[in-house]
User: Which sequence fits this backbone?
């Protein structure tokens, strides 16, 4: 009976942790993998890992731990999907996706398309630095690499984006395949 | 924030704001948690039922095969469900298993618990773990074939304690691996996790079977293969056409040193009817094949042999052989029999570490464990859904098994003598091995672009709970000497053992520490040695390429490097050879104002040893005669042993059987298979024993009273070791 009570308490406590962090986790995952369904899959796996760790009392900063688990899981999936996209690109041709009408929105969409074309490590560095507002040191710790690597990946990512956006101004944005899916769509 | 940064931030935030979790997300989380818990429960119940089946299928076949010379198989084999109590420091603890559904799991050998690491994308056809891999820290590669697509090579690694942020999985398409063609290759990862070897088809020589080696980055990725800036270009560092081994079908394991130029390692391979090894020599930018070895005949028609030195008193050799037709049999020891497994040879794999073998065949995985003195058990059955597997933890295989591996293995009956304990190092980690065989990790260097450990030296007067270690490290071709202290069993210097602040300040001195010097000739390291009292540390180095050879010293006290300027001295040697320093001894009783002594220096490639006089003056400062000539003390020597009396009374020399250890007038033959193609090694005296590191994967302890050769209970690669005295 005591074990049962303990399970219920654990579950309720974990639910509170979930409620506090899941929205940000899903958004971060989406920015890392582009696909809303995959983002939820990533977050499910991440929280399952967090639960195991949390049960053992090994999580001090749950938010950071969730971010770390999400980034790691997303990174694996992103690399796998990049392969799939490379194969698909040979067949599908233009995959720039749907553009928005508003000028600012169109620019944000254009930037987003560029972000999706970045290699996984550059994309993770850019998202964590400019969306999650993590410092270079925190980003390095989260990604398990050196600060120099974060600087390098961020710098290369931004340079690549500028290159892609410049190409977009000339009407040639084909840096590589990256089908765009909008949040909430295509479910 | 510049405009592009602002645009990126705006875009990311706008995109994120449009994302809301669905109500079903929490259900997904609960399902994942439940699935993990069910996996554990299921594997527990499987173990109970399956062990009986394993005993019925596997154990009788072992019994039928006759008795091996050593060890013997019990008449009534004991079936052990949870053999944790029988684990020794040399036994593996976990296995990586590839399942029929494409998942790759880690299974606990003691409990049967499984934890999913990756998978579900497609059928797995090959799985290999790097030597020295353990549950907490492993690197592995697998070949996965998604339906209707090119095969993927998946590299997996774990750097820490199971934290999801410290491991990862990287799929690389075989499209990115030159020569891999569309066929599923066999894969192996180098011992340091930085290289991937795979089988393929030569693009240069008539599409012959070939073995390739390409680099992996710190995260297990083939550099450039996934980077759109570089397209699919991958630098090919090694291509070898496997003509002398017929067709190489399987890469079994890659062992030996690979960090430095001219390092020699072995890639064990297997063809349809023969097995062998490629001896790979490290070059400036990759590897070249230095030697090919083939084995056939006397071990039946061997399919696979895994052999190990074990921590205690017996050597266990597990072998897979053809049994006629398509059958395959497993054999323990050197019995001429062997036991038919009743499964197809194509579907069987064998891995062995310590006293444990993992056998995967016909969809079933079992572990066999040899329990001294004469019992072999089916210790656990790991499921009927397994297609490939590799053991984690335990002792890595010591060498390639030859025609009769048992006869060539050292066999002793004593227990390895650890004296007061050992400090051992692989190229990244320095650990303390206590006399009871337990170990404590003292420091681990980061894997990315940082230093590798080349030598350790324990300060005299240290104990297992209070010690100082000088660590010689190499980074980008230059060396430094660093140090750490352990007080009351805890690392007490102000170092972060795994962080960016390591090490504590390198040895600072007026005369040149940190060494910061290029390689000595032939890449030898300027290892540091302590004075017998531990109050001076010395190293041989050069200030730069072409500069004369120097002996540098620095004073030391219990808190660390001394600031006494008299103790920090540099002496240029008159004879300019390529030497490293081995030890420092006094040759008088210290009654006079000046105590006479000397350093023992060695040129291990030339096989020459020398002494140079180095005295201590009345104020403790070192002094060297102006002429400081080198005095030859031996030829044909690649290491020297300093006896208890402070004299140079021992030597390690090449011998007809591999190597000969000479100490105090006695001589001991050391086994050939531990020596490798180039005889080099280190000897450390442990009271009545000597620790000999000839093969980094299989350090030996020689009992100097009986001459018995034992395996040291040290898992993983050992590049350097020193005794606590």
Assistant:
């Amino acid at each position: 009976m005591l074990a049962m009570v303990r399970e219920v308490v654990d579950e309720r406590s974990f639910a509170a942790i979930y409620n506090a962090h899941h929205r940000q986790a899903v958004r971060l995952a989406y920015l890392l993998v582009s696909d809303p369904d995959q983002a939820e899959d990533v977050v499910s796996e991440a929280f399952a890992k967090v639960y195991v760790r949390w049960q053992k009392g090994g999580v001090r900063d749950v938010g950071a731990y969730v971010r770390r688990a999400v980034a790691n899981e997303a990174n694996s999936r992103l690399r796998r999907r990049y392969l799939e996209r490379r194969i698909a690109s040979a067949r599908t041709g233009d995959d720039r996706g749907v553009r928005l009408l508003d000028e600012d929105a169109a620019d944000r969409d254009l930037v987003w398309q560029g972000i999706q074309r970045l290699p996984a490590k550059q994309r993770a560095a850019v998202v964590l630095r400019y969306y999650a507002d993590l410092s270079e040191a925190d980003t390095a710790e989260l990604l398990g690499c050196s600060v120099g690597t974060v600087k390098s990946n961020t710098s290369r990512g931004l340079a690549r984006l500028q290159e892609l956006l410049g190409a977009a101004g000339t009407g040639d944005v084909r840096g590589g395949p990256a089908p765009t899916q909008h949040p909430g769509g295509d479910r | 924030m510049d405009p592009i940064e602002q645009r990126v931030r705006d875009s990311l935030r706008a995109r994120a704001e449009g994302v809301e979790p669905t109500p079903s997300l929490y259900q997904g989380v609960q399902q994942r948690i439940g699935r993990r818990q069910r996996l554990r429960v299921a594997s527990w119940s499987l173990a109970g039922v399956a062990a009986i089946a394993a005993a019925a299928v596997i154990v009788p076949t072992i019994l039928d095969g006759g008795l091996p010379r050593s060890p013997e198989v019990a008449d009534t084999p004991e079936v052990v469900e949870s053999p944790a109590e029988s684990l020794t420091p040399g036994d593996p603890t976990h296995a990586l298993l590839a399942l029929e559904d494409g998942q790759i799991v880690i299974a606990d050998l003691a409990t049967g618990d499984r934890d999913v690491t990756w998978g579900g994308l497609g059928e797995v056809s090959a799985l290999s773990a790097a030597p020295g891999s353990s549950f907490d820290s492993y690197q592995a590669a697998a070949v996965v074939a998604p339906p209707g697509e090119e095969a993927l090579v998946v590299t997996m690694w774990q750097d820490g304690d199971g934290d999801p942020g410290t491991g990862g999985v990287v799929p690389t398409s075989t499209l990115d691996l030159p020569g891999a063609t569309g066929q599923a290759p066999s894969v192996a990862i180098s011992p340091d996790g930085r290289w991937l070897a795979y089988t393929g088809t030569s693009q240069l020589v008539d599409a012959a079977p070939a073995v390739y080696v390409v680099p992996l980055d710190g995260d297990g990725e083939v550099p450039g293969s996934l980077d759109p800036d570089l397209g699919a270009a991958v630098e090919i560092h090694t291509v070898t056409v496997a003509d002398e081994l017929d067709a190489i079908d399987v890469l079994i394991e890659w062992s030996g040193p690979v960090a430095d130029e001219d390092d020699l390692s072995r890639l064990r391979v297997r063809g349809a009817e023969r097995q062998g090894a490629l001896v790979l020599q490290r070059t400036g930018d990759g590897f070249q094949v230095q030697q090919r070895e083939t084995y056939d005949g006397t071990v039946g028609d061997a399919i696979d042999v895994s052999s190990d030195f074990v921590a205690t008193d017996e050597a266990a050799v597990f072998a897979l052989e053809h049994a006629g037709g398509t059958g395959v049999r497993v054999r323990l020891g050197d019995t001429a029999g062997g036991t038919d497994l009743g499964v197809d040879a194509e579907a069987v794999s064998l891995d062995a570490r310590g006293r444990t073998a993992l056998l995967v065949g016909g969809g079933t995985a079992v572990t066999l464990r040899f329990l001294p003195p004469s019992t072999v058990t089916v210790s656990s059955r790991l499921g009927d859904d397994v297609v490939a597997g590799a053991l984690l933890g335990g002792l890595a295989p010591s060498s390639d098994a030859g025609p009769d591996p048992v006869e060539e293995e050292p066999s002793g009956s004593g227990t390895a003598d650890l004296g007061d304990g050992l400090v051992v190092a692989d190229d990244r980690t320095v650990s303390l091995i206590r006399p009871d065989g337990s170990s404590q990790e003292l420091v681990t260097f980061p894997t990315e672009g940082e230093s590798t450990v080349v030598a350790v030296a324990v300060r005299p007067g240290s104990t297992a709970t209070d010690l100082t270690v000088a660590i010689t490290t190499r980074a980008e071709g230059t060396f430094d000497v660093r140090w750490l202290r352990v007080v009351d069993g805890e690392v007490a210097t102000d170092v972060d053992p795994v962080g960016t602040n390591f090490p504590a300040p390198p040895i600072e001195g007026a005369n040149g520490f940190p060494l910061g010097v290029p390689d000595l000739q032939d890449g030898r390291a300027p290892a540091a040695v302590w004075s017998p009292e531990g109050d001076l540390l010395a190293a041989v180095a050069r200030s730069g390429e072409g500069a004369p050879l120097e002996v540098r010293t620095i004073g030391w006290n219990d808190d660390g490097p001394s600031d006494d300027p008299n103790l920090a001295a540099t002496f240029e040697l008159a004879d300019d050879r390529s030497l490293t320093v081995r030890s420092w001894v006094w040759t008088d009783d210290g009654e006079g104002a000046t105590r006479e002594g000397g350093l023992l220096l060695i040129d291990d490639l030339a096989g020459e040893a020398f002494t140079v006089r180095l005295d201590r003056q009345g104020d403790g400062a070192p002094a060297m005669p102006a002429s400081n000539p080198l005095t030859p003390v031996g030829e044909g020597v690649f290491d020297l042993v300093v006896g208890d009396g402070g004299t140079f009374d021992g030597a390690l020399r090449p011998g007809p059987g591999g190597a000969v250890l000479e100490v105090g007038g006695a001589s001991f033959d050391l086994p050939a298979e531990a020596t490798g193609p180039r005889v080099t090694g280190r000897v450390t005296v442990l009271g009545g024993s000597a620790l000999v590191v000839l093969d980094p994967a299989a350090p030996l302890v020689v009992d100097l009273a009986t001459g018995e050769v034992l395996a040291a209970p040290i898992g993983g690669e050992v590049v350097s070791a020193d005794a606590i005295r």
Summary: Chain B has a mean pLDDT of 66. The radius of gyration of chain B is 27 Å. Chain B touches chain A through 56 residues (CB under 8 Å). The first strand of chain B starts at residue 92 and ends at 99.
